[in-house]
Amino acid sequence: MNGSKPGKPAGIGRTRGRGHSRCAVRWSLSPHPGPLPWGEGQGGETARMPHSRVGHSRNWRTRRILRRSRTFPELNKLNLAGPRVRLRQWNDADLEPFAAMNADPEVMEFFPQPQTREQSIASLERLKRGIDERGWGLWAVEIEQGVAGFTGLAKPDFEAHFTPCIEIGWRFRRRFWGRGYAREAAQVALSFAFERLRLQEVVSLTAQLNERSQRLMQRLGMTHSPRDDFEHPLLPAGHPLRRHVLYRIRNTPDLLKRLNQELNETADRIVCPGSDSKN
Q1: I need a labelling partner for 111 at 20 to 30 A (CA). Which of 16, 41, 53, 103 fits?
Q2: Nearest to 176, CA basis, from 85, 60, 272, 76
Q3: Whether this model's pTM surpasses 0.90
Q4: CATH class of segment(s) 27-268
């Protein structure tokens, strides 16, 4: 994947002998939604530069990447895919599953409240517009030709000790829980953040009570320090979800190799269409 040119898909999967064809991870170019307002993400990673401070000097490379992404039209063609998931721009047909997901009380357990249909319509428009304007954001996650939820990168609209930054959030319909889809989509998004945007660090944040998202962060290889935990400024004092945790992961060559290896291992468990073999 390193050094592959925009628009040129680069497979990182592999095939095995005895005629067993395995699905490869595919990289091509598709769009991304914009900022992650409160209630838009489920767990979030925030790409952050080291030695940054709140204010004018903080995250100057992150800001430069945000500005640069608007000037590169090829980023607006990004279409990222893993062995089972495809991260793509939203379309009008996605509204019904998107609104149903946002209205599900179990899916929205760790957000202030479920969304109305009108809120979901406005939210979907923001996500589409963010992709068009920036070239990346919160992608629709397509699984088996259906929308399972979203995963991607965004810029939080509040100030904290780790902002400004790029946050990655995810949310999935209940029927797609517990099958590794969220992890796979997050691995694809992390690879994009580290390889395409060349971010040096990513953090993930969620409500302290949200143990499910924290387990996913841990499976992604993120680490947690209680010193990074914070009170979410967009929630009132005393709100049960106000206390948030922060997880971090740094961009290293070993990390990129691990992400690719884990995606390939997922591909190895899947027989490509047209293959006569089974796992």
Answers
A1: 53
A2: 85
A3: no
A4: alpha beta
Domain boundaries, the chain: 27-268
- Cα 157 to Cα 137: distance, rounded to the nearest angstrom: 14
Q: Decide: 228 and 205 in contact? Cβ < 8 Å.
A: no
209-232 pLDDT, tens digit per residue, is 999 999 999 999 999 999 999 999
Do 165 and 60 touch, CB atoms closer than 8 A?
Answer: no
Q: Positive or negative CA dihedral for 134, 135, 137, 138?
A: positive
| Residue 168 · residue 35 · CB < 8 Å | no
SS3 content of the chain, % helix, strand, coil (to 5): 35, 20, 45
H or E segment and range at residue 247: strand 243-250
Angle ∠(19,24,29) on CA atoms, nearest 5: 150
**pLDDT, average across residues 42-50:** 39
Sole residue written with tokens 């893993």: 82
Q: How far is CA 266 from the centre of its chain?
A: 18
CB 165 within 8 A of CB 155: yes
State which amino acid sits at residue 208: Q
CA atoms within 13 A on the CB side of 39: 17
Closest CA to 220 of 244, 193, 255: 255
If you compute the radius of gyration of the chain from its CA atoms, what whole number of angstroms results? Answer: 18
Taking the CB of residue 158, how many other CB atoms lie within 10 A of it? Answer: 12
Quote the CA–CA distance of 14 and 25 in Å, as a whole number: 9
Q: Are 167 and 153 in contact (CB under 8 A)?
A: yes
